[in-house]
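Structure ticket #2291
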Amino acid sequence: MRWSKSKLAAVAVAAALSIPVVVTASEQEQVGVFEEDGKQYIKLPDGSLFELPDFDREVSPNESLSDSYSEEYQEYQQYQEESEEYVAFKSEVVDVERLRADVEHRAAQAKEAKPEEFEDLAGHYAVGIVSLMNQMGYVDGKSDGGFHPYDSVTRGEFAALLSRAFALEVVDSDDYSAYDAEGHWAEHYLTSLEELGVLERYEDGYWHPDFEVTNQEAVDAISELVDFPKNRYVDPEWASEYGGSWDPESLQKAATLGLVSESKPGSQYSPEHPVSRVDLVVALFRCLSFDSVAYEYFEEFFDQGS
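Resolution: structure written out below.
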């Protein structure tokens, strides 16, 4: 029996969250599993590869391929059975139907849009993701034609990008004085996100819209929009070596977003360091991919090789 796209998306999400993927040997090809150098992998639409356990034997539907994750996977599997579509957004803040309609609209536009060619992204691991997010109108390049992947992101830019990515309503509210952001191009993005409880001002009461956003601030704001899985596993040994000053909960979220990983050790990925443009775009792509409906549009885009 061929798996549906929604189930395939669930498998991909499970792999991305380090939850064991439970399939039978006969279903390998249907979930995009391939073998290379004697190891088996699943490839996600963003190009990420996840190594899978040995599929030489049949695995029963209720059997976990990793005993250490069996309880977590059973909870995840039960959630999937109870919900036709995986929803990872906080419904009190994010209108999921509005978001899905926005993704559908942007995907249709992307098919007609000519992708920008960013020379400074040539050979970069995230070039496909950035190209997609650019064609869908989530993010633009700089005025000189480059993307500048490692430039920082201002609070104003961050507010605008969050609003676009999660299809949030941006309104001109008289209830929230903009203070230092009054007249700033991002004024309404900032005040709208404040009204939703996503962004806060600094302790001095000002927005400082041109200040840089840190990794921690990015995680905190996205946490107000995304219902992060509680069972995301972070290796304690790795966390002690590379986790730095991250608190455990934030580190788990940062790892889920791709802001930190074993390939990204160092102060550049500390909570206090400014988040880079490319890391933020990848993080938001991952957030949108958590939703099975939005994921299908991304999957179609990558399948077409656009």
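Closing remark: The mean pLDDT is 74.
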